[in-house]
Amino acid sequence: MKGKKDEQHVQLTLKSKYKVRSLASREAVLETTGTFRGIVSIGTIDALAMEIDSGELKGKIRVIPTHMVVAIDIVEAAKKEEDDVEGADMHYT
Q1: I need a labelling partner for 14 at 20 to 30 A (CA). Which of 41, 44, 85, 91 fits?
Q2: Which of 31, 83, 34, 22 is nearest to 59 (CA)?
Q3: What is the pLDDT of residues 14-39, one digit of tens each?
Q4: Can you name the CATH fold of 17-79?
């Protein structure tokens, strides 16, 4: 139902855990599970910064261009921090 006051809007929040599926090639999908660290810009391309939480790359940051994202699963949502300002410039924490 539209217009409900208690309705929660889905948004990416810092420190939330997500499973992101993105295109690795025309035939392959890359799956990244980890903690969302922010949005970064590479030239004119926006990308998700994800801290990988398992495997040999555990603790490393993977940058995934937004136009390559196929799906995002919310594994564990963190509350939006007070200093997260809507419409703020790109940031990385």
Answers
A1: 44
A2: 34
A3: 999 999 999 999 999 999 999 999 99
A4: SH3 type barrels. (2.30.30)
Q: How far apart are CA 35 and CA 15, in angstroms?
A: 5
Give the pLDDT confidence of 28-74 residue by residue, as tens digits.
Answer: 999 999 999 999 999 999 999 999 999 999 999 999 999 999 999 99
- Assign 61 to helix, strand or coil: strand
* Cα 82–chain centre separation: 18
Q: Give the integer Cα–Cα distance in Å for 28 and 22.
A: 9
> Do residues 63 and 40 make contact, with C-beta atoms less than 8 angstroms apart?
yes
User: Domain extents for the chain?
Assistant: 17-79
